[in-house]
Predict the structure of histidine kinase.
Amino acid sequence: MFIKMIIRNGDRIMITSSGGALFSRLFTSGLLALRLRVLWMGLLLCCCAAPTLAQVCAEPADGQTSLRGCVHALPDAAAARVLNALGLPVLTGGEWYRIDLATAGGRYLLDIGLPDAYRVQVYQQQGGQVRSVLALGAASTYTDRPVQHRRLMAPLSLAPGAATVYVYYHSHGKMLMQARLWNADQLNASDTEEHLFSGLVVGIMLAMVPVAVLGLGGQRALGYRMYGAIVLTNILFVGQVEGYNFAFLWPGAPAWNMLAPGALGGLSLMAHIGFAMDFMQMRTRMPQLLRWHRALLAVCVLTVAAHLVYELDTLLTIQMLAYSGLGCAVAFIGVRRRIEAARFYLLGTSILMVIPLILFIFVVLGVQLVPFFSVLSFPKFGGLGETLLFGAAVVSQFQKFNARQAESRLLRLAEAEQLLLAEQTKLAALEQANERLLRLASASHDIAQPLASLRLAFSAMAPQHGPIAEHIDTTLAYAQSLLKDLIEQARQDQRLPEPIVLTSMFGQLGQAFQAEASVKGLRLSVRASDVRVTGSSLLLYRILANLLANAVRHTPSGRIVLGTRRRPGGVEIQLFDTGPGIPAPARERLLQPFEQGGHSEGFGLGLFIVKNLCQQCGYALRIASTPGRGSCFAVFIPSTLMC
């Protein structure tokens, strides 16, 4: 087997092969044989992948021709020599190509393979004549195209035989031209297939938008919005590289059309950053990465704004490559930390890394790795894969969130059942207590009758026995009052809670104790209050009456103030006096029964009764005191017992 290379005109290479055994001896031993086999397989692959490598491209019967084998890139110096010889202007800053054709004659469309360009110029040379068939500049609108197609098309009118076409274009980066030659019928059929396929891809991507809509009421509403932004920017980016946007959305804005790929890519990158911050729960689980992502988001915003002025396509592509690597690292961290659906997100970010890398290699560096596949198709497949994988991540996370919500609802239901059981137990205990209290009230009623008779009898004996009879009468009167209180308490417990107007109750208390306070020279001040509470007016009156009685009894001079003050979670009824005060160690002791504050007056039951009545009503008793300056007794009523 041997290889023969024929060089003609200094710029065309024809590679053929024929049978022989010249190199077969080299495939017999060692490392050299292995290397030669690899080289030979590479050459065979090139030959198989390029069956049309020839001097000219002939028109096949199906009406379309791939011009890959007869498209020759012209360096600037070679292009200048050829164009000067033909008397054509030399354009710089872009790419020059020469295409050699051999056709049977007729009208054809030369597909340059690009959706747009800053400038494009196509010349046709045949039979010694050269003419311009396409000339578009940066200000050319979509309607200025001689063939209004989503890709740049040059109309050719060829006579039978050989012809040469010179193509110049200046577009994004240094993307290699993938030209094709069409007749009208075959182009229409191909466009129909491509429209159907592109519509299918965009339709699938649009079908994922409801995923974001359905998730707006969930736990991560921002993440769902960012996913929706990713889907929409991917759709617009695919439409841009396929040429649909210029044809249908902004046909009269060529300047914006050239800026749109970078701007849409930057917007897609910003949506990715926002989605990553929310989806990967960076606020709570990755605070350091959250700060980095916020900084990257700010840089991306500034870059997109600068791109609208300075055309920073390359910088935006580099930013996407840099972030895609960071995104894969973050996704890997999320997988290790067991963040929900992080594996789907890792696959999606991998596509985000591969697609910009391919675009960077193909477009910016001008490398063509896949001969039969257009670079402009990569964003379409990449956007579709990314949308589906991110959508799977969102759906998976949303389903797990709903599962947790359902589990939480079941737990709350179980807790509610436990609370209901506890409440039923409490009600049963209250009923038993009420029954015991009613029995005690009945017994108190029966005991009160003989006590009343005894008191009448001792009253009749008072003139004979003097102080002894008076003491017995006082004791019986106190016993009667206790029995009366028990009966009233039992009666009150059988009533439903009633609204209590504190202003009215304070007025009654002021009238009841004003005379006693005046006798001691005390100023009793009652502050009006518009607070309304629910409960037992009798019990609340007894609480405040006991506190006022203690204050009047133990305050030698000064004043006593009764009022209310709102507190967080309720209201506080406060009673201030200027008495001797209560030392801190003695406060808990005075709340016990029959404990007195260093004097013999009273029975030592006032504060004990107040404490028990507060517990019964659901209030809280608070005591603050400064020895030598006075005390403050406060009854806290929670907001649940307020009207």
